[in-house]
Design the sequence.
């Protein structure tokens, strides 16, 4: 059943050179990758992912030098961030050169550039003569996969190869930033935190872009995203569990167990980090959500983190994931 999961980098190179789409590991989440310079290959990504054509793709390169081939210029603030955090879980929106096809950027003048930290992804990028466009390897709007087996589930054997690089170490998508009139805009929060960015750019104003109020396209900003199909609610588990105790509950706890107290109601409990470590929570979150969404539970209950560091990015994903279940 998992015949297309392998760590054969030679096969990955061959397929990509032929204009095919494959799934690749990165340190954040798995991506659906194709030659970013090949419009036909790009179109296959949109089809596989069922993604609207007006939602642009991130272009992955192996170095800052390689990235320069696709962008007109890099402002000094962005260059400083690149030197500090790359390779790593951060994407930069930069003015594109015309060698990047319209389909990649949805005709925008900006292209998202990311240099991933995952060893296998970097090795692959170094051995190719073109960059890779890659969105997260989920069906549009659903939860991003952080394990090769989860990609298979999402893509139902429709990709020729899932390059297996193990479990993603970061677990949530990259931070997306843009320098706009001297202000550093954070379009999507991620593992490179607002605090870390501000520390490097101490003379620059850093702001987190507002969430969209509708479902149009700017970066990862649609309010509903990453959503499980099972009703999903957030809050203080001590209050939530009693409220839903007549249903079959799946619980995602960040540190403490509620099983003893509510064992009649809780069908499955997943404790993401006994140390309550936000990074470990980020790493395990999506795989746990995906797993619970395939179980026979009527409702999934989960807590949130204090709004600081990577906790902001985790909360952001959780709010979007629960949006459709809570919007009324
Ligand atoms: O960690 C990540 O960034 C993963 C891995 C695979 O690298 N990729 C990822 O891609 O999360 P995706 O497509 O699922 O999310 C990228 C977001 C989208 O919301 C898209 O709208 C935005 O970035 N984006 C990409 N290029 C853009 C551009 N040129 N201008 C504005 N937004 C852009
Ligand atoms: Mg995505």
Sequence:
């Amino acid at each position: 059943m998992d015949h297309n999961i392998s760590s054969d980098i030679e096969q990955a190179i061959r397929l990509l050179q032929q204009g095919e789409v494959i799934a690749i590991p990165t340190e954040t989440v798995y991506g659906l990758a194709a030659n970013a310079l090949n419009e036909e290959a790009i179109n296959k990504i949109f089809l596989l992912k069922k993604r609207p054509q007006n939602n642009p793709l991130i272009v992955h390169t192996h170095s800052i030098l390689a990235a320069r081939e696709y962008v007109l210029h890099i402002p000094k603030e962005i260059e400083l961030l690149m030197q500090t955090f790359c390779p790593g879980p951060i994407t930069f929106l930069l003015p594109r050169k015309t060698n990047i096809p319209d389909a990649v950027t949805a005709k925008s003048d900006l292209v998202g550039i990311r240099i991933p930290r995952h060893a296998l992804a970097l090795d692959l990028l170094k051995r190719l003569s073109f960059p890779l466009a890659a969105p997260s390897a989920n069906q549009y709007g659903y939860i991003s996969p952080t394990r090769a087996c989860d990609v298979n589930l999402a893509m139902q054997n429709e990709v020729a190869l899932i390059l297996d690089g193990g479990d993603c170490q970061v677990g949530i998508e990259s931070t997306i930033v843009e320098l706009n009139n001297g202000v550093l805009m954070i379009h999507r929060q991620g593992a490179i935190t607002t605090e870390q960015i501000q520390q490097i750019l101490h003379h620059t104003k850093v702001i987190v872009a507002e969430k969209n109020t509708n479902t149009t396209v700017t970066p990862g900003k649609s309010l509903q995203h990453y959503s499980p199909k099972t009703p999903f609610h957030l809050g203080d588990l001590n209050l939530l569990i009693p409220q839903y105790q007549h249903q079959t509950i799946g619980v995602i706890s960040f540190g403490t167990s509620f099983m003893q107290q509510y064992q009649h109601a809780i069908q499955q409990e997943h404790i993401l980090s006994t140390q309550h470590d936000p990074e470990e929570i980020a790493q395990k979150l999506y795989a746990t959500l995906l797993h619970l969404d395939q179980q026979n539970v009527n409702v999934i209950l989960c807590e949130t983190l204090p709004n600081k560091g990577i906790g902001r990015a985790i909360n952001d994903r959780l709010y979007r994931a629960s949006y459709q279940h809570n919007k009324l």
